Amino acid sequence: MAVFDDIRSTRRSDFVNTFWRALANQPALLERTWSSIKQVMIEPGALDPLTKELIYVAVSAANNCSYCVHSHTAAARAKGLTEQQYAELIAIVGLASQTNALATALQIPVDPEFEMSQVPPARFPISDSAPRGE
Amino acid sequence: MAVFDDIRSTRRSDFVNTFWRALANQPALLERTWSSIKQVMIEPGALDPLTKELIYVAVSAANNCSYCVHSHTAAARAKGLTEQQYAELIAIVGLASQTNALATALQIPVDPEFEMSQVPPARFPISDSAPRGE
Amino acid sequence: MAVFDDIRSTRRSDFVNTFWRALANQPALLERTWSSIKQVMIEPGALDPLTKELIYVAVSAANNCSYCVHSHTAAARAKGLTEQQYAELIAIVGLASQTNALATALQIPVDPEFEMSQVPPARFPISDSAPRGE
Amino acid sequence: MAVFDDIRSTRRSDFVNTFWRALANQPALLERTWSSIKQVMIEPGALDPLTKELIYVAVSAANNCSYCVHSHTAAARAKGLTEQQYAELIAIVGLASQTNALATALQIPVDPEFEMSQVPPARFPISDSAPRGE
Amino acid sequence: MAVFDDIRSTRRSDFVNTFWRALANQPALLERTWSSIKQVMIEPGALDPLTKELIYVAVSAANNCSYCVHSHTAAARAKGLTEQQYAELIAIVGLASQTNALATALQIPVDPEFEMSQVPPARFPISDSAPRGE
Amino acid sequence: MAVFDDIRSTRRSDFVNTFWRALANQPALLERTWSSIKQVMIEPGALDPLTKELIYVAVSAANNCSYCVHSHTAAARAKGLTEQQYAELIAIVGLASQTNALATALQIPVDPEFEMSQVPPARFPISDSAPRGE
């Protein structure tokens, strides 16, 4: 299977984990998902590979995906995660979950100061909605 | 209030955001939460401050905490987050959520290869359970 | 037990899955839950039985309920789910989770155009609040 | 509308909050939901009314339901919630969310000691599966 | 912008909702997400377009994504969703969330009968792991 | 280890469950988490110990933390939880999850009557933002 071959050659390993095997009967989804993983996690970017994996583990833990916590913690270790970094990652995941719950339970309104930094003008090109002539 | 003063001097800013004000009537919780934030997010560690904020934003988005997404995206920008890094963070949060959902919907069993890297022996000191004499 | 008998006769099967057995000690909850399932999932309505199960599986996956993903995927298969339909269901669950996460991470404001279609006037009968004389 | 009348007389108040109005176009769901609320939250039981509301607020916060956090915090106040009790409720919601996230991120296996207390034999009446003769 | 043009021509409408505008600064993510939406939601498949939207709304509600609940409820209405179908969708989302919570709170073990139907042999092509010769 | 000793003496039991062992390699997190548990769950307060555990179980179920559902259900039993109280707890967790999902799926706006009771003036001491002179 072409995707499996690409997984193996990209990772330089014969091991194809069950996640990908489980998608084998759904070729379009397999193709699309692997292609996204390559673009987002493997192509060089502004974040280094280990940082990307830390973010992936954090999201997987918050989403309570046992499979993904396991596979991406393993991936992070393979990319050099130290015990100290792991301890700090876990501590942040726990603390953020706590303050998330506090903010939600108290229904704290967003400070106007934060609204601004969230959405830079360029991201919502309102001008685009007007002069198009198609 | 002592905690508010510490927030201001630690951050070198007069601005105390609503999250902390909302805890003002619950002094023990306010004290404990701020103390944790200082230890986890501000004390120097193995992860740099910006990486910590990226993880915080990722967890907050996965937990759907609007307040925390706003406040920690602002904090990340204040620590130098570039548009390109932000774009990559968002892409990972989205992609991880997708593969989390796929793994969950398909109930994919964890590969034995991953079990090992998740729990290093040292983390579960079983020997401790035996020889204690207290 | 009356509810177990009704489950068996309604489903034309002697098999009573563990979910219902686990509620056996809580008769009111068992009765209420089964009665709701019958009304919502079994009584003929505007959605066909298979479509109902697809929605049930989708919610269960998003809520990360392993038991319910298993039991309702089995129910969907029993109602004729094909491999192709299953593949599309899984793909939608994954994609929706991704765009959910993106919209949340970016804190995208709801378009005014969507507000309207969400809440048809009839659903909030404000007039009702005025002239009641009870 | 009969259900609205029952809500008013049960609560001894003319106020019918938007949640119920929003279900007005779906009579079966309105009827079923109100009937469940009456059975679970209003009928006397082993837990007192305030404790029930605390649990309801806790679940609503963990599920991130802004409407329900608001409405059930109001209900708890109406049932006598003190500021001190509220502070403790919030603290537990936050702390539980933190340890939930830690246990999930670390994928900690359940102690065998806990398995037992979770599922008392009576709750899974296995004997029922054998001798039924219906 | 090419993607915006494709959105407009595919939907035969000048309206481009904010979700897509919010991704305008992240071209790779915009391109990838729209391409996935087209493949999954628009290309003809085994599920009809309205059923797909029902599943999308269900996942978005379970994931508590306000934006996506709004936009996909609107999309479902545009594809012919009737009030009766909507009422049934809402009822299933509510009921599934209840039984999800019950199964989770009670930690009900999956019936062996369900394990089988979840993972058909073909989906995990174990044979593939052996004879590859790359 | 000092924290383990304190766990044992506080609980008057030699048993230290895996959650704490799993944090053994992360002393600061172990210390901080146990200290929080003592303050929130063990120190006498306005809520009795059993009520606190009920809230903890409710949050853990809503957050889908299998470990914490198990450990805190066991803790609640140790503190005297009766079968009838447990049945009511489970029923509330299920019902709240249903109405949470309904309110979210219908995007019901918060009644102005509830806004008030959520945020008592004292909790947001606005006056504090003005006259500080540090």
Structural class of chain A: mainly alpha
Sum up the overall morphology of chain A in one term.
Answer: elongated
Beta-strand fraction estimate of chain A: under 5%
Low-confidence parts of chain A, pLDDT < 50 over ≥5 residues?
118-134
Distance between the termini of chain A: 42 Å
Determine the mean pLDDT of chain A: 88
Annotation field: number of helices of chain A = 7
Taken together, the total number of domains of chain A comes to 2
Q: What is the top-level CATH class of the largest domain in chain A?
A: Mainly Alpha
Write down the CATH topology of the largest domain in chain A: AhpD-like
Q: Based on DSSP secondary structure assignment, what is the total number of beta strands of chain A?
A: 0
Which percent range fits the helix content of chain A? 55-70%
Rounded Rg of chain A: 20 Å
The CATH superfamily title of the largest domain in chain A: AhpD-like
Biggest interface: C-E, 69 and 70 residues
The major β-sheet of chain A equals: none
The CATH architecture of the largest domain in chain A is: Up-down Bundle
Provide the succession of SSEs of chain A.
HHHHHHH
**How would you describe the oligomerization state of the chains in this entry?**
homohexamer
Q: How would you describe this protein?
A:
The structure is a homohexamer of 134-residue chains. By secondary structure, the first copy, chain A, is an all-alpha fold. Chain A folds into two domains: 1-43, no CATH class; 47-101, AhpD-like. In chain A, 66% of the residues lie in helices and 0% in strands. Chain A contains seven helices and no strands. Chain A has helices at residues 2-11, 18-22, 27-42, 49-62, 66-78, 83-105, 112-118. Chain A is elongated and about 50 Å long. Chain A starts with a helix and ends in a 16-residue tail after the last helix. The relative contact order of chain A is 0.06. Mean pLDDT of chain A is 88; it is low at 118-134. Chains in contact: A-B, A-C, A-D, A-E, A-F, B-C, B-D, B-E, B-F, C-D, C-E, C-F, D-E, D-F, E-F. The B-E interface holds B 64, 83, 87, 90-91, 94, 101, 106-107 and E 25-26, 28-29, 33, 59, 63-65, 118-119, 123.
